[in-house]
């Protein structure tokens, strides 16, 4: 089974050199596939991204990435609106029935074909090239706006300590994003690894504090237990059980925007070392994020502070910079413990910075994927020697300057319009991933004349209980959230153009982009018979086999300390 390594083989996804020029064409290679999608990389002219993320990077990133200031500050909104139990159930449903199966679906797609085009190319190859175009444009805009949003959150956290103009901190933040975008992806992985550790320490520390405090370990000696779990449900918009259901649904919508990460895994797959092992491991361990952040964090937050806490209600009404508006800090003060505000604020700031950095990365790689697919000008595929897509980084940086609109009150109105228009963009991306996943399964089974079962499928397939029940449940909930995310605007007094566009601009724009590209390029929907599941597969198999052989033949260090570090790393992250 080995590939001879004399000299070392350097094969990469979407890197099929022709005789005349070093151009990679990934498109339909099967005789019966529809040839309306071709991805190209001119390696000599533009370079190519590099695989530099190892298992340690990937596992920490998937556990902690996309966890920003929302789960530490903005989380007060659904808690106050829905009540303790309604809020908890909504988060649990989204985490178990959408986040987990969607992470597995992405793991299955990326382990089979870990290409540099991410899920946009899966959309084009398995569904329709027009869907790839529409998904990429919506997602690029969404991630760019989230970069601005998190940069503003960092400035707000710093404003907790100083009254200096927030524009100073926004400048520092986005310049750091620019710098990290231009260095190699391995350095990006290191930065995210250590900020991920800080996020984990923060949430674990807050959970332990809540546990000890509810058992009586506080300055008041009050073993309050589950006393703060009240009211369990609160009505929203109307009274009675209908109002309580609407409050629950409102929390489910908030969870949909705050709890995700599957798109991140899809985007990093093209730059992961040994992706079929490391992406599969990351998908498997996504349950850690669910239990640690989504279930454990929300459970202990409810135990620490009531949904009717007067200080929490005041923070909702009057706002508060950084930790001052965090329900965690308000709850800690309520049990008589003071002095932790600055520490928690610093950790929340690092979370917001890390989340913004992750969105900056996702934006640059999305632009890169769109460029090599021909959805954007090809020069955006230009990479530095370290693999950084330089023009993609510069474009994202340029758009991130919109963050300065938040410095003035009049600019904030404009900025909020930009952000609100992309509010449901991430949900649209999830829907496109689901569509690609189901079409891929059907195409693989049709073209291989066998069922996709663990005993017959050679790649990562997720747990046996995943498909079809959890995957279809995840798809249905995602569709319902996208359709009914703006339910509240149809109640008296809430309907206006701003609210309607906030809720429905992204899905409407997605459909418009899809129709535009379909008319322009005359694309056709793929069927299970002609969906392109074979292009690049042989090249990826050869690349990864060569990569594994190179890792196995790499000289082992005799340093005992490094051996111990390696064993600890393997135990934790392999």
CATH evolutionary superfamily: Amino acid/polyamine transporter I
Mean pLDDT: 84
CATH first level: Mainly Alpha
Structural class: mainly alpha
Domain count: 1
Q: The biggest beta sheet, please?
A: 2 strands, antiparallel
Radius of gyration computed on alpha carbons: 24 Å
Whole-Å distance between the termini?
A: 24 Å
Task: Report helical residue fraction.
Answer: 55-70%
Strand content: under 5%
Give the H and E element order.
EEHHHHHHHHHHHHHHHHHHHHHH
Order of the strands making up the biggest sheet:
1-2
CATH topology: Amino acid/polyamine transporter I
Number of helices in the DSSP assignment = 22
Q: How many E-type strands?
A: 2
Which ranges are low-confidence, i.e. pLDDT below 50, for 5 or more consecutive residues?
1-31
Overall 3D geometry?
A: globular
The CATH architecture is Up-down Bundle
């Amino acid at each position: 089974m080995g590939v001879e390594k004399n000299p070392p083989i350097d094969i990469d996804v979407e890197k099929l050199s022709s005789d005349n020029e070093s151009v990679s064409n990934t498109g339909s290679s099967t005789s019966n596939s529809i040839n309306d999608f071709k991805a190209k990389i001119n390696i000599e002219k533009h370079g190519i991204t590099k695989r530099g993320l190892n298992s340690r990077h990937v596992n920490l990133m998937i556990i902690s990435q996309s966890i920003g200031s929302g789960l530490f500050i903005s989380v007060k909104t659904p808690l106050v609106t829905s009540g303790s139990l309604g809020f908890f159930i909504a988060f649990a449903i989204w985490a178990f029935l959408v986040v987990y199966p969607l992470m597995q679906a992405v793991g299955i797609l990326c382990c089979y074909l870990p290409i540099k085009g991410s899920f946009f190319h899966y959309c084009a190859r398995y569904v329709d090239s027009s869907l790839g175009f529409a998904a990429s444009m919506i997602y690029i805009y969404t991630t760019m706006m989230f970069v601005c949003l998190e940069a503003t959150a960092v400035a707000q956290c710093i404003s907790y300590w100083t009254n200096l103009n927030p524009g100073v901190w926004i400048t520092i933040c986005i310049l750091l994003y620019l710098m990290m975008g231009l260095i190699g992806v391995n350095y990006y992985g290191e930065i995210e690894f250590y900020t991920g550790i800080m996020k984990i320490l923060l949430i674990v520390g807050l959970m332990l504090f809540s546990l000890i405090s509810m058992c009586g370990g506080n300055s008041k000696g009050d073993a309050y237990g589950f006393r703060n779990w009240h009211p369990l449900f609160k009505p929203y918009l109307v009274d009675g059980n209908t109002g309580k259901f609407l409050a629950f649904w409102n929390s489910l919508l908030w969870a949909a925007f705050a709890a995700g990460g599957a798109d991140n895994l899809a985007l990093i797959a093209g730059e992961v070392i040994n992706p079929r092992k490391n992406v599969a491991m990351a998908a498997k361990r996504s349950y850690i994020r669910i239990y640690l952040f989504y279930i454990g964090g929300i459970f202990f937050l409810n135990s620490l502070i009531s949904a009717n806490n007067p200080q929490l209600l005041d923070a909702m009404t009057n706002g508060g910079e950084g930790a001052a508006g965090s329900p965690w800090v308000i709850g800690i003060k309520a049990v008589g413990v003071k002095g932790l505000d600055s520490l928690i604020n610093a950790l929340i700031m690092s979370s917001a910075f890390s989340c913004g950095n992750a969105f900056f990365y996702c934006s640059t790689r999305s632009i890169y994927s769109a460029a090599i697919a021909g959805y954007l000008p090809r020069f955006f595929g230009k990479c530095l020697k370290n693999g950084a897509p330089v023009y993609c980084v510069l474009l994202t940086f340029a758009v991130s300057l919109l963050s300065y609109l938040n410095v003035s009150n009049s600019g904030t109105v404009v900025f909020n319009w930009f952000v609100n228009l992309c509010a449901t963009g991430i949900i649209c991306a999830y829907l496109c991933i689901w569509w690609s996943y189901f079409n891929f399964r059907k195409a693989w089974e049709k073209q291989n004349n066998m069922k996709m079962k663990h005993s017959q499928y050679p790649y990562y397939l997720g747990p046996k209980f995943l498909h079809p029940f959890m995957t279809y449940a995840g798809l249905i909930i995602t569709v319902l959230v996208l359709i009914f995310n703006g339910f509240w605007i149809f109640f008296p007094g809430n309907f206006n153009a701003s609210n309607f566009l906030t809720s429905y601009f992204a899905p409407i724009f997605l459909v418009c982009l899809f129709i535009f590209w379909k008319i322009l390029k005359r694309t056709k929907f793929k069927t299970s018979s002609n969906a392109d599941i074979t292009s690049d597969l042989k090249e990826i198999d050869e690349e990864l086999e060569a990569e594994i052989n190179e890792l196995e033949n790499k000289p082992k260090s005799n340093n005992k300390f490094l051996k111990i570090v390696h064993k600890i790393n393997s135990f934790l992250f392999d």
